[in-house]
Design a protein that fits this description.
The chain is an all-alpha fold. The chain contains 4 helices and no strands. Helix 2 (14-36) packs antiparallel against helix 3 (50-71). It is rod-shaped and about 115 Å long.
């Protein structure tokens, strides 16, 4: 039930499914071993690889989650630096455009002043 709710919410439940399958296999293996052994030794006959399977499953899940985090990592500090650099460059370009416009206006007024004063 929780699994389907997670799937509907858009979460990747593949690692959860793997862990559930491994858990079911380990439980089935434990049942088989306990059924095959005498009742007095049933506690001693637990599969020795069950904890290692569980730890391996947890390790795999952890590796997948770390990989997902690495793929989705966004370096905010780098983005802020790029933004500040872009704003600085933008400001310099605006100042240069303002200087060029002022120079153009000065040339136009000088050209109209020369042409209009001679006649």
């Amino acid at each position: 039930m929780v699994q389907t709710e997670l799937e509907e919410a858009g979460f990747d439940v593949t690692p959860l499914k793997r862990m559930m399958v491994q858990h079911q296999r380990a439980a089935a293996q434990q049942k088989l071993l306990s059924a095959a052994s005498p009742p007095s030794n049933s506690r001693q006959q637990a599969p020795p690889d069950l904890p290692s399977l569980q730890q391996q499953a947890k390790g795999d899940l952890l590796k997948e989650e770390i990989s997902r985090w690495n793929q989705n990592y966004i370096d905010v500090n780098n983005l802020v630096k790029k933004l500040l650099d872009a704003e600085r460059a933008n400001r310099k370009l605006r100042e240069e455009v303002a200087r060029l416009r002022l120079r153009e206006e000065e040339r136009e007024s000088a050209a109209t002043g020369k042409g209009g004063g001679g006649g």
